[in-house]
Amino acid sequence: MEGLAQDILNGLLLGGLYAVVAIGLSTIFGIVRLVNLAHGDLMILAAYLSLFLISAWGVSPLVTLLAIIPIMFALGYGLQRFLLNRVLGEDLEPPLLVAFGVSIILQNFMLMAFTPDARSLMSDLSLMTFSMGGNLSVPVLYLINFGIALAVVAGQHYFLQNTYIGRGIRAASDDQYAAQLMGVNTKHTYAVAMGIATVTAGVAGVLVGMTFTFYPHSGPQYLIIAFGIVVIGGLGSMKGTFVGGLILALAQILGARVFGPGYQLLCGYVVLLIVLAIRPQGILGKG
Amino acid sequence: MANRFTKIKGAILTALAVGLGTVPVWGSEYAMLFFMLFCIYLALAQMWNLLAGYSGLISLGQQSFVGLGGYTVAVLSSYYGMNIWLGVGLGGVTSVLLALFMSLFIFRMKGVYFAIGTWIFAEALLVWFSNWAYVKYGSGLFIKPRNGLSMAAIYYAALVVGAGSVALVYKLLRSRLGLGLMAMRDDAQVSETLGVEVFRLKLYCFLISALVTGITAGIFYVFQIFIQPYKAFAIDWTVKLVFMVIIGGIGTIEGPILGAFVYVVLSQFLAEYFSVSMLILGGIAIVVILIAPKGIMGTLQEKLGFELLSPRRN
Amino acid sequence: MPKEKEGKLKGISRREFLQKSSVTAAAAAISVAGLPVFTSLAWAGKRDHILIGRPNPSTGPLADFGAPTPWVDDRVLAKINADGGIFIEKLGKKLPIKVKIMDTESNPTKAAELTSRLIMQDKVDLMVAFHTPDTVNPVSSICERFKMPCITLDSPLETWLDGGPYSWAFHSFWSVEKDILPTYVGMWEQIPTNKVVGVLMANDPDGVAWSAIFKNVLEPKGYKFVDMGRFPYGTQDFSSFINAWKKENVEIILGATIPPDFATAWRQCRRFGFTPKVATIGKAILFPSAVGALGGDLANGLSCEIWWSPDHPFKSSLENVSAGDLCADWMKDKNQEWTQPIGYKYAGYELAADVLNRAKSLDKETLRKAIADTNMDTIVGPIKFNDQNYCRTPLVGGQWVKGDKYPWKINIVYNKQHPEIPTNGTFTAIG
After folding, report:
1. Nearest-CB residue to A10 (from C203, C239, C296)
2. List of residues 6+ apart from B137 with CB closer than 8 A
3. Which DSSP letter does residue A127 get?
4. Which residues constitute the domain of residue C207?
C-alpha cells in the first residue's frame, strides 16, 4: 500500500516534534512532581514572541531562537522561584490550580495582545519539499524538526547526567532533604529545572509555529499531547519521551488513515486513556 | 444569642427567597437573565465542589456532562419534538450513564492522572460529537421547543436547580454518605479499615454530580437555543467552575454561592471584554490560592473560630 | 459514639446555616444596590435614536469578512442621518440611526450570546448581521425566538434555511445548488480534466451542505469524488487527504473551509509535492489578504465565487455611487484592495433604511411586515423576499492572478448565469 509508507514516515517525523513538546512537561513532572498545566500556553507564548521578533528584526524564525531561549529560561525560572515554589507541598491541588490560573492568564493575555486571528511563522523553509523516490516526499521542515528534537533530547540528557547543576537537579528530585543536606539549594535547583523545561517548551513552540498555524487558545491541545506522551512513554525517561512521541504521532496519523481525518485526535486520546487505565507508569516508565 | 441571630438571619433569608422567587414579577428580562445565569453556575459550582472539596476528586471534565446534557435536550426536542423539560430530565439520565462508563476508566487513576483523565474524556467527546453526522457535526444544533417558552419559565427552572443543588449538598453532607465522606477525607486508609467503602462513596458523588450537571446544562442550553461541540465540551466550563469555587471557598457550602455570584457579576459587567474578565478572574484565583487557600468563605469560617465540617486541613 | 457525633453534626449545621444566611444577606445587599440597573431597564424605551444591533466577526478566523466594518457602516449611516434620519410617525419627527457593533470573535456561540444581550439588555429596534453561517444562523434563530425583526445577508441559503422556518428573519444571498454548483462546474468545464474531484470541507454548516449537494448532483454526471470526510476547524495535519488525492490522481480540488485551514492544507499540498489542475475553494480565498498570506506564489490560479466586485453593474439607492465608485473610495481611503463584503454590508443598511422609511414606526410587527414587502434595487442587485423570507442574489466565478497595483487580483472568468456582469479574464489551469 503506497500511501502507508508516506504515512509512517510522516508519523515518525512528527513524533520527533512531539517529543520536544513533551520533554519539558516530563522534566517538571518527574522532578518537581508538578503537572504544569500552562506548558502548552508557554509554548504558544514563545511562538508569538518569535512572531513579534520576526516582524521587528526581519529574520527567520530559527534565528529568533537565539533570543527566545534566554527569555523563556528567565520566565520559567521566575515562575517557579516566585510563584510555584510557594505552593509546593503535600496537597496536590494548590500547585495544579495555580498552574491552571497561569494558563488562563497567559491565554487571555495573548488573546488581547494578538487577537484571535490565526498565525504562522513563515519562512522559505516551510514550503520546501524533498523527494525520496517512489511517491515519497519529505517536507524539509519536518526533517529540521526531527533534527532539532534529537539535539534537544540528547542535550538535556547529557546536561542532567554530566553537569554539576544537572546532578543537583536529579538529587533534589530523588530526595529533597538529602540534597539540601549535601548543600544543594533546592529552591534554586527547582527553578533551574523549570527554566530548562520552559526553554524546551519555547523551542517546541517555535517549531510548532513554523509547522502549523496557531491561535491564542492552541496551548491546551499541545498540553494534552505532551501529557499523553509522558504517560505513554513513562515518567523520567528520555528514551520513553521519544518513544512516546513516536507512538502518539503514529496513532494519530494511522488513525486518520483508517477512521478519517476528523478522528485523528480521538485515536490519540483513546490510546492515552487505555494506557492511563492499564499501565499508568507508562510503557518504558519506572513503576 | 444564637436565637436572636437566627431570627434576623431567618428574616433575611426569607426576604431573599421571596425576592429571587419573584424576579419575573419585578425584574426586567435582563434581571431574569442575570439571576438565571447565577442559579445555573451555582448548581454547577456546587457539584464541582462536591467532588473537589468533599470527595477529593479534582474533576477537570465536568464539561462532558454539560455537553451531553445539552445535546440530549437538543436532539430530543428538535428531532423528536419531545417536551422540553422531559428532555432536560433525560439529559441528566444520559449524563449519569456516561459517568458510569467513564468511571470504568478513570476510577483506576489516581490524583493528577484522574484529573487529566477526566479532561481527556471530555476532549474525546468533543472530537466525537464534532464528527458525528447525527448531530450535524461541528455545525451544531438548534433547540426549538414545541410550544413557545417564556423567559420566566426558564428562570424558574434554573432557580429550582440552583436552590436544589444547595439543598442537595446540604442534605448529603448531613447524611450517612456525608459522614463517610468526612471520614474518608480525614484519612483514607484508616476509614477503609473501618469499613467505609471509599470507592463507592466517590462513585456516588461522581454520579450525583453528573446528574445535576446534566440537568443544569439542559436548562442552560434551552436558554442559549444553540449548542455546538466546540463550546459545549470545552475546558472553559471547568475553568469557570474552578475559579468560582476557589475564590468562594473550596469545601464549604457557601463558597460556590459567593463564587458564582462574583463570576456572574464580573462576566456581565465585562461582557464586551471577555478576555479581561477571565484575566482578572485568573489573577484573583491565584492570589486567593497563595494567600487564603480556603477561599473567602473558608477563611471567614476559619477566622470566626467555628469548628466545622470543613474537610480541608492544612 | 455515632450518636454523639450526630448531635454535634446537627448543632454545627445550624451554625453553618447562620453563616450561609449572612453570606446570602451580603449578596442580597449587593444585588439590591444593583436593583435600579435591572428594573429601570424594564421601563427603558424612550430613546432619541433608532438602535440597530450588529453582531460582526471583527476578530477570529472570519475577521476578513468583518474587516470593512466600521468603514462601510459609518459611511452609510452618515448618508442616512444626513438630513436628520428616519421619520417616525408616532413621534412626529425624524430620528437618527445608531448602530451597536459587537464582536462575535467568529464564534457562533458568542454570536448567540451577543444577540440575546442586544435584544434583552440594549433593546435594539432591528437586527442586521452578515458573514457566513457561523454568524448568520445563530443570530437569525435567536431573533426568531425573541420576535425581533432581522435582516441578514452573506451566507449560503441552504444553511440558513436549515434553521427555519422563519417569520421574523429575512435573508438574501445565493444558493449552493442553484448558483455555486453551476458556476464551479462551468469553470471546470472550460479546461480538460479527468473529472476526479478531491473534497476539502470542514465539518461546519457550509462543509456539510456543500459536500452533500455537489455529490448528489455531479456523481450522476460522471464526476468521481474522493472524499476523506469532514474535518474540524484548526486541523493541523492534512497529509492523509493529500495522500489519498495523489493516489486517486485528483485533478480538481473542491473546498469550503475557513481561511486559516485552507492555508494550512494548501501549503501542505505544496510540501508534499501535490499540485492539482484546479482548486476551487469557497469562503477561504475571497480576500486579497488571505490569498497573500498563503506565501510564495501559492495563490496563483486559485478559483472561487464572486458575489460582488467593482464591475458589478449596480448602484446604491442612497447615494449616486456605483459598485465601482464605492470600491474606488475604499481603496483611496484605506489604501487596500477592495473586498467582496463591502457591497453586502452596504446593502444591509440600504435595506434597513428602506424598511424603516416605509414602516415609519419602531413597532416590531410593523417592521416585520415592511421587510416582507421589500422590493428595491441595491448595490448588490435587486432584492425582493419570497414567501419563505429569502431572496437570491447574483453569482459569478472568479480566479486569482498576479495583480498590477496589488500583489494579487481576482478576475471574473465565468458569468453564464448572469451575463449582465461582464468577464475580464479567462479560466486557466494552475501551474
Report:
1. C239
2. B130, B131, C203, C204, C207, C208, C230
3. G
4. 177-306+396-414
